[in-house]
Amino acid sequence: MAFQDDDTGRGASLDAVLSELKRGKAVPCYLLYGEEEFRLRDAAERITAALIPDPRDREFNLFVTDGEHEEIGPLCESLITPPLLPGRKVLMVRNTRLFQSKDVLTQVVSRIRERLEPDPDRAAADFMQFLALTGLSLDDLRDGGWRKIDDDAWRKMVPGDGGQDREAWLPRAVELSVGRGLVPTPQKAEETDLLERALAGGMPEGNHLILTAETVDRRKKLFKTVSTLGRVLTFTKVKGEARQQQAAMAMAADLLEGRGKRLSAAAWAALGRKTGFGLRESVGAIEKLITYVGERGQIEAADVEAVVGRTREGTVFDLTAALSGRNLTAALRTLKELFDQGVPALMVMAMVTREVRFLLHAKLLLASGRLKAFSANMDFGRFQKAVYPSLKPGAGEKDGQVDLVSQHPFVVFQALKNAERFTRAELAAYLEMLVRIDLALKSTGQDARLLIERFLLAVCKPNVKAS
Question: What is the pTM assigned to this prediction?
Answer without folding.
Answer: 0.54
